[in-house]
Amino acid sequence: MDKASHLSVVIDLSPTQWHLCSQSSNPHPLPLQLFLSQLLAFFNSHIACKDENSLAVFGAFPGKSILLYSSTTIAAEEHSVNADANTYRPFKILDSTIMDSIRDQLEALELLEAEAPIGLVGAITKSLCYINRLTIPSSSTTRAGEQAVPLDPRILIFSVSPDQSSSYIPIMNSIFSAQKLKVTIDVCKIYGSDSVFLQQAAHLTGGSYLHLDRPDALLQYLTMSFLPPPGIRQLLSVPTQDKIDFRAACFCHKRIVDIGFVCSVCLSIFCNPVPVCSTCRTKFPIKTLQRLNASRPLPMSNATATSSVPRSPAVQDALRNGTPTQNNGSK
């Protein structure tokens, strides 16, 4: 608990998803402007908890990811802000830097760029690299005779976009890197269905996955669930995941599958049995492929249709005896 806490925040800033989230047809709409105002209050609370706490904010925009704010860079201190006697200057610098960066990036987006896949994986990777630089400082970043302050790093992801099946492998690589660096990944799902990949990220790194029932009460969720660092959470009752979706995406079509076939050599996942692994080029015996195809369960639609259609006595006798029947036009 005596360690300083570093918080890297990844914000999903998809214009399309935030437009859907702010619609009045939703039970509890949350506009982007209201989300950012509550989020900045959470950032200020994190900085105020301990003098040594640090913060880095990454924005996941369509097709790219950008560092919006870093409390360890000199550029943040040189940011010119108007003096205000009623505002604490570090909070003012933080708020203005993040808001100006987000506004500039959103205004620079063109119509076609706004529909590009969100750069969530790039933002997570950059946050891990940033944490690795803080936890293992080089001789150039550490002054002579100065000892590095031990950190308790964690990543908090705000998600509003659905899963991208093509990003399964990069996200899993990021999860394994976070496990090696002992970085906790927390996920706050604000809008949309549950994210399969982010559920696995929170579970495998010991973090919390929270799907908000009331997005308009975001600040209360953040203060009670995500403000305490992992060291203090052992003494608190933080939300836990009731169920975790461990499905994976196949390597052939990049689709999330319920039943997959794994290569015994490189552990690649396929939605159908393949004679040759496309990753390691391993060839599988024909008998193995036949056995796997025979063991596949029938689709639910076909099984339901077969069981729901009434059969005539002649058809039932044919099925029991294994003899073919002829359709004589009777129904």
Strand order of the largest sheet: 3-2-1-4-5-6
Unreliable residue stretches? 302-312, 314-331
Mean model confidence by pLDDT: 80
Q: Give the total of beta strands.
A: 10
- What class do helices, strands and sheet pairing give? alpha/beta
How many structural domains? 2
What value does the Rg take, in angstroms?
A: 26 Å
Work out the helix count: 12
Write out the CATH superfamily name of the largest domain.
von Willebrand factor, type A domain
Strand content range: 15-25%
SSE string, helices as H and strands as E: EHHEEHHHEHEHEHHEEEEHHH
The fold-level CATH name of the largest domain is: Rossmann fold
Distance between the termini: 76 Å
What is the 3D form?
globular
The level 1 CATH classification of the largest domain is Alpha Beta
Summarize, please.
The protein is an alpha/beta fold.
Descriptive report:
This protein has 331 residues and is of the alpha/beta class. The protein folds into two domains: 4-233, 3-Layer(aba) Sandwich (Rossmann fold), CATH 3.40.50; 247-299, no CATH class. It has twelve helices and ten strands. α2 (32-49) packs antiparallel against α4 (89-108), α5 runs parallel beside α6 (168-181) and α6 runs parallel beside α7.
Layout of helices and strands, plus pairs?
Layout: E1 4-12, H1 15-21, H2 32-49, E2 54-61, E3 64-70, H3 74-77, H4 89-108, H5 120-135, E4 151-159, H6 168-181, E5 184-189, H7 196-204, E6 209-211, H8 218-226, H9 230-233, E7 248-249, E8 256-257, E9 261-262, E10 269-270, H10 286-295, H11 300-308, H12 313-321
Helix pairs in contact: 2-4, 2-8, 5-6, 6-7
